[in-house]
């Protein structure tokens, strides 16, 4: 499977962001990508106005997503991204959507909200309550996570036990002391401990680190970007996945969850 990673800085104007997304979709399709992954919260952002994600939220049939859905019609490339949609309680959902051939084929509402490092995502965002679905892309089962989810290994493990070969992670990883190190360690750990591919795409710009990367099932970074806007590609290989799970059978060797492991 050929994966495209589209890293960019999100504008406060949704019209500018949709044009960026449409351009990345067209370029990725030209390069023969099966999957394009974009960052988290790409509808609108302003570092001076943290409430913008709420004020700018649109339903999935609104003008932002509708233009991307229309642009996907007539081909089999899958595009994944996170956008904010209105929630019934007056806040917004942070929704990771998958688009293919003129349809939204999956939706995942972010489970773990970023109430950490002096941030409070839950002020404007309502958490989801459902385990993300798997999405089939070019013969691979793709599991979905969003940004802060990567700090919770039980979600990645659940998705892999459900059958995921690849974990996709749109993110807007905030800059700060040790934060780039946290990103690299966590993305690599989720890949290695689950013998799965990780496709992690971060927003760049004044607030966020960028540093998008693809890590293979043995913890090797096979493609990565720095802090600037970028579109780059990686090939995911079923043989590499099978090899990793043969030489490092952690999924078969695991003991937790077995009935004889009880504390009684």
UniProtKB/TrEMBL annotation:
Gene3D superfamilies: Carbon-nitrogen hydrolase
Classification via CDD domains: nitrilase_3
CN hydrolase domain: residues covered: 1-238
Keywords: Hydrolase
Record GO terms (molecular function): hydrolase activity
Pfam families: CN_hydrolase
Alphabetized InterPro entries for the sequence: C-N_Hydrolase, C-N_Hydrolase_sf, De_GSH_amidase, UPF0012_CS
Keyword Hydrolase annotated: yes
SUPFAM superfamilies associated with the record: Carbon-nitrogen hydrolase
Family statement drawn from the similarity comment of this UniProt entry: Belongs to the carbon-nitrogen hydrolase superfamily. NIT1/NIT2 family.
Name the record gives this protein: Hydrolase
Organism field: Rahnella sikkimica
């Amino acid at each position: 499977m050929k994966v495209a990673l589209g890293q960019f800085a999100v504008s406060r104007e949704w019209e500018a962001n949709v044009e960026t997304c449409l351009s990345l979709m067209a370029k990725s399709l030209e390069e023969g990508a099966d999957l394009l992954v974009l960052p988290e919260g790409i509808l609108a952002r302003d570092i001076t106005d943290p409430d913008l994600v709420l004020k700018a939220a649109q339903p999935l049939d609104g003008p932002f997503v509708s233009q991307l859905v229309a642009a996907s019609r007539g081909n089999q490339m899958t595009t994944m991204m996170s956008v904010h949609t209105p929630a019934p309680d007056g806040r917004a959902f942070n929704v990771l959507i998958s688009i293919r051939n003129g349809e939204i084929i999956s939706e995942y509402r972010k489970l773990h909200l970023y109430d950490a490092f002096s941030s409070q995502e839950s002020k404007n965002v309502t958490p989801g309550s459902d385990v993300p679905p798997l999405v089939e892309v070019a013969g691979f089962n793709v599991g979905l996570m969003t940004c802060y989810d990567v700090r919770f290994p039980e979600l990645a493990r659940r998705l892999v036990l459900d059958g995921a070969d690849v974990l996709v992670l749109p993110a807007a990883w905030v800059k700060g002391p040790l934060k780039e190190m946290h990103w690299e360690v966590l993305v690599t750990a989720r890949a290695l401990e689950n013998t799965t591919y990780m496709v992690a795409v971060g927003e760049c710009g004044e607030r966020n680190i960028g540093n998008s990367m693809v890590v293979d099932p043995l913890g090797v970074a096979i493609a990565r970007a720095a802090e600037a806007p970028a579109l780059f590609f990686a090939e995911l290989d079923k043989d590499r996945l099978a090899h990793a799970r043969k030489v490092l059978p952690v999924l078969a060797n695991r003991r937790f969850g077995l009935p004889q492991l009880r504390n009684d």
